[in-house]
Design goal:
Blueprint: E1 2-6, E2 15-21, E3 33-34, H1 38-46, E4 49-55, H2 69-75, H3 97-124, H4 130-146, H5 150-154, H6 163-181, H7 186-198, H8 208-211, H9 219-225, H10 228-239, H11 244-252, H12 273-287, H13 299-307, H14 315-325, E5 333-336, E6 340-346, E7 356-362, E8 367-375, E9 383-386, H15 389-392, H16 398-402
Antiparallel strand pairs: 1-4, 2-3, 2-4, 5-6, 5-9, 6-7, 7-8
Helix pairs in contact: 3-4, 3-6, 4-6, 4-7, 6-7, 6-12, 6-14, 7-11, 10-11, 11-12
């Protein structure tokens, strides 16, 4: 019996009779095949295939698409989750942003400590405590389900000194959010999070004098810095705990779709889907974070600038990323139609252009206003432009949405 399904419903164990899409002429798609493992599944998901006819007499249905557990364990290295790809959590009500921020502060602190330990173990060739890493990725994933804005916004406030470790936590969260936006199966969502967590582990072999240099790097230092993807991939391969997909993200997250990236100058779909995802997540967190040699950009300003970088990102992946974090991410400074300035407090679940904001300043009189929260989805006002914190001379705007006066000082212990 044949059954037609969308490409995102494909799972390991299904027998594909025919695929539909512009890639069907490639040799890989020239015959029917069994999706035996995640590597085969990813090839399909990374292509522009839109649907498939599956043969239920030869493989699994949508409701029973998991290989025998013993077979799966024999074929694959340890996984982050034992849930099947059909066990997709139903819609969960969001908790309040303020409530999840309190949880996120504690999660960031514990995650920072776990990442420091894991990176040290990998650098020294010690056995990684995989259960602890698994639990951490799961906790980050659960935080995003409770409220998608809290942790991803808070983790941007890391200091330059803790950048490498908290950047890994941030990219983990961004990869999970982006993978969900792309409708990837739960096992791949969790693996995307792990890949994000480990993408920069190779920086452990880069001299601190280069990582923490308060000035732009010279040519020799740039050459040294560009060795970190290969060094990281080597560490992960030596560990033998991590899948080839996770290793590939570590190796290729600095590739660009126009072929100008490194280390291998891959282009287009030569770059794996996960690596194309990591390229966007890595850059976004980097430019929205304070670095030793420059101040961070605002989140909305970063999205606007990244959108103009021709040839850098996969456009489908980038557009999905924007839907994931919002056109006006939490913390963005915006001008309203009324002439007031506001900070974005929270994304609307359904509408990218109408977040909840906190008004605090008059652009015309250049005077502070009593802080007031407004839900733009109710039509009370509207955003007319993105503003720069530097232009207005504002500092520590995060105090308006985090609810603390600590500024950008580390909250992660």
């Amino acid at each position: 019996m044949l059954k037609h399904i969308g490409v995102t419903d494909l799972c390991v164990g299904m027998y594909v009779q025919e695929l539909s899409g512009s890639c069907v002429e490639r040799p890989f798609w020239s015959k029917s095949f069994l999706i035996q493992n995640d590597e085969v599944l990813e090839k399909v998901l990374a292509s522009d295939i839109v649907g498939a006819w599956i043969d239920l007499s030869k493989g699994a249905d949508v409701q029973a698409s998991v290989l025998d557990e013993n077979t799966a364990q024999a074929q694959q290295p340890p996984r982050l989750s034992t849930r099947s790809c059909t066990e997709v959590p139903g819609p969960r009500p969001r908790v309040a942003m303020s409530e999840e921020l309190l949880r996120a502060v504690k999660l960031c602190s514990s995650s920072k400590a776990a990442v420091m330990e894991m990176f040290s173990d990998l650098r020294m060739g010690r056995i990684v405590q995989l259960d602890r890493v698994t639990d951490m990725v799961g906790e980050i994933s659960d935080s995003l389900l409770r409220h998608p804005d809290a942790l991803l916004s808070l983790v941007r406030l890391k200091t330059a000194d803790e950048y490498t470790y908290m950047h890994s936590v941030a990219v983990c969260g961004l990869m999970i959010g982006l993978a969900r936006q792309l409708d990837l199966p739960p096992l791949l969502v969790q693996e995307a999070g792990l890949a994000g967590l480990l993408h920069d582990v190779g920086k452990m072999v880069i001299p601190t004098a280069i990582l923490a240099k308060p000035l732009p790097l010279n040519d020799q230092e740039h050459t040294t810095m560009r060795t970190h993807p290969e060094e990281g991939a080597r560490m992960l391969a030596d560990s033998r705990h991590f899948t080839s997909r996770v290793q590939d993200v570590c190796l290729h997250h600095h590739e660009k779709v126009d072929g100008s990236g490194y280390p291998h100058k891959l282009c287009g779909t030569q770059i794996s889907l996960f690596a194309r995802m990591a390229a966007v997540c890595d850059v976004y967190d980097a430019v929205t974070s304070d670095r030793p040699y420059r101040d961070r950009w605002g989140p909305a300003e970063s999205i606007r600038k990244m959108a103009g970088w021709s040839g850098h990102f996969d456009q489908k992946v980038f557009h999905a990323f924007v839907k994931c974090i919002g056109i006006y991410p939490v913390g963005a400074l915006v001008r309203l139609q009324s002439g007031r300035l506001a900070v974005v407090m929270e994304q609307h679940a359904d509408y990218l252009l109408t977040p909840r904001v906190k008004v605090f300043y008059s652009a015309s009189s250049r005077m502070p206003l009593p802080p007031e929260c407004i839900d733009l989805a109710c039509g009370q006002d509207s955003i007319v432009s993105i503003e720069s914190e530097k232009t207005w001379g504002f500092k520590s705007l995060e105090a308006l949405w985090v609810g603390t006066g600590q500024g950008s000082e580390s909250r992660f212990g």
